[in-house]
Amino acid sequence: MPYVTENCTKCGMCSFACPTGAITVENTDTVDSSKCIFCMRCISLCPHEARKIDFDGYEALRERIRPICEVRKNNELFI
Known about the structure:
Layout: E1 3-4, H1 13-17, H2 41-45, E2 51-52, H3 55-70
Antiparallel strand pairs: 1-2
């Protein structure tokens, strides 16, 4: 899970950026683990670099999705 450092100013950018609503404007210090999809958007868009992820956790996630990402897949359109 992404975590918040002392650099957080509670600007709410992470909350607005989260596609699943795992971070609320009222409580930007926590992430709802049942909603988080580990897209890392909150980390990449934080203007204060206040959101981080545990490096060991990142490596574990990377290894878990490596087989899925190694094979090129065709685009699909679902209507």
